Amino acid sequence: MAQQETAERQPQGGKTLIVLAGLLIALLLSTALLSGSRGADLLTETTLLYATLLFYVGAAALYLGFGLRATEAYLRWASIATWLGLAANTAALAHHWYQAGHPPLTNLYETLLSFVWALAVLTVVAQGRYGVRVIGMITMPLAIAGVVLVEQLRTAVHPLSPLLQSNWLQVHVTLAILAYAACAVSFALAVMFLIQDRVETRTFLAICSAASLAIYASVVAACVRIWGGLAGAGWAEIAIWHGLRLKAPLVLLSWAMLAALAVVATPVACCALDFRKPGKRLMQIAKRCLLASILLQGLSLAVLLRLKGPSAAAASGRLPTPLGSNPFVVTGLVSALLISMFFLVLAWRRADLERLLPPVELLDRITYRAICLAFPLLTLTIATGAYWANQAWGSYWNWDPKETWAAITWLVYALYLHMRITVGWRGRRAAYFAVAGFAVVIFTFFGVTYLLRGMHAFV
């Protein structure tokens, strides 16, 4: 009788979240569509990207609801939202292809949009074929961060340079996109393996806090000088609502970012002390600081996105773009916020997540299969890139930063396969290696482009 009552109550809660998510998506999407004054302006690339973001956000929220409450209706509608986001993503790719007159594979904006599309496709495959029903909890936030970066990177369509007018471009970049998407899926599966394998929550806290700290330290190091430094002058306008704007000195924004950095660093320090001398009090302080950091990170991101005026647009150094639209800064803050929220959910309802995850043996095996898919694609990416480089530059290998880090990425996954096949690596060591491998992929894809500019400046 109790089980029957629970089953009767469960759809009602499920319907509530589904209706709220649907109404929010419909409201925001209709607002974007109605902002165009003419019917011909409705299905623009901007609107399609906005719809993609909304559906992926809805899918992530519903996957999270399924992970927390195990309501099957959440999973069904999360899948539907993923498919709708994938359709909008496909339409945005097709629209850009039509406008540009060439496949969307020639710059970071186009390749990232294609990467997000491939990630959504592999999410659907992993969920449908292998039964990893909560994989969207990790892959959809990755897709959200990707779409946010895509919207910041969008520029006007320009004719292709002679260097990019080659069929090898399409082959080389397509292979790279598929390889990186497979690496992202292996990362998601490895994280789920670590959860199911009962890795200590404090270990997750240390990893998530360290990742957020690294992101914030990089952002602050790159942006404090841009914001006028701790003793700089200048004012920025923060758009509150329509014509309402609030003026704030740039120096206060710098101090606010440093305060957020300090709060993000506190859990890392607590975890380091706890590993030396375990104690519940340190973990309580670390979790409270993480919660406070989430609030500060959200506030910092909201203020950053609303910066207006000439002072906010002034830039120098490696990031010559307005602060509010700087892709490196915005995506870094979004990623750090998502990482912190992931741990918050894990600490809150870990037992519920563990019940929904497949067995560790299956997760370990699927992670291995994803890397077995990624590795030959990485190999072909390097091979086709070398052949194309010889045609374009007269040399197969030039030790360009992008080439060097592509080789490092290949070596990392080659070592994973070698240790698994010859030494028999399984379990946590292999999962940690898969997580580290995807970190190298992220740096190869984004970090090299922004920090180590070379001959591959167009990607």
Descriptive overview:
The protein is mainly α and 459 residues long. It folds into two domains: 14-159 and 166-198 and 354-451, no CATH class; 219-327. 76% of the residues lie in helices and 3% in strands. It has 14 helices and three strands. The protein has helices at 2-34, 45-69, 72-100, 108-130, 136-153, 167-196, 201-223, 250-276, 280-305, 310-313, 327-356, 360-393, 401-423, 427-451, and strands at residues 235-241, 244-249, 307-308. Strands 2-1-3 form a three-stranded antiparallel sheet. The N and C termini lie far apart (60 Å).
Summarize the structure.
With 459 residues, this protein is mainly alpha-helical. The chain is built from 14 helices and 3 strands.
